[in-house]
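Thread: quick sanity check before group meeting

JM: Hey all, I'm pulling together slides for Thursday and realized we never actually wrote out the predicted structure for the chain we discussed last week. Dropping the sequence here so it's in one place. If anyone has concerns about the input, flag it before I start.
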Amino acid sequence: MPVIANTTIISNFASLNRLTLLKNLFGSIYIPEQVFEETQSGLLQGYDFYKDLTALIFPFSGDGWLHLTALKSTAEFKSFGELLVTLHAGEAACIAIAQHLNWTFLSDDKAARKLAAQLNVPVSGTLGVLLTLCKKNLLSMAEADHVLKQMVKLGYHSPISSVSELLKDK
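JM (edit): ok, ran it. Output follows.
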């Protein structure tokens, strides 16, 4: 199933120069124009970890694995407009597209995740990505915990201190 990512996911992995973890797990990821605009705005605000992002984005790079997409159908635009009442443009675009194309939505934003779940849009976030990387043997639990600790040092608010805590609920 294709995945579409909000800025939070891109930021968490880009800030550690670990976007390849997303590529290794998903192969390709879609980002709407609104998320791209948010990353470019972040770059102007000094978030230098976005500086090489365009080299990973198709169509800016022929072999980019992040695929720029846009709202296309009337239904997507209608959903987008409705979601803008409570969400930022990037989150609203991701959910609108995911809802109508049956894609998975990647985000750590609590309000966006809640709305996506209400619309039956499959959702995952940074912790889910780290856990799945471990389950698919793309990352050891120790490596995942190291990545999580680095993210927390940079401001990521994690409800857990170790990815292994997610296995206790399974």
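AS: nice. The longest strand covers residues 29-32. Residues 86 and 103 are 21 Å apart (CA to CA).
JM: adding both to the slides.
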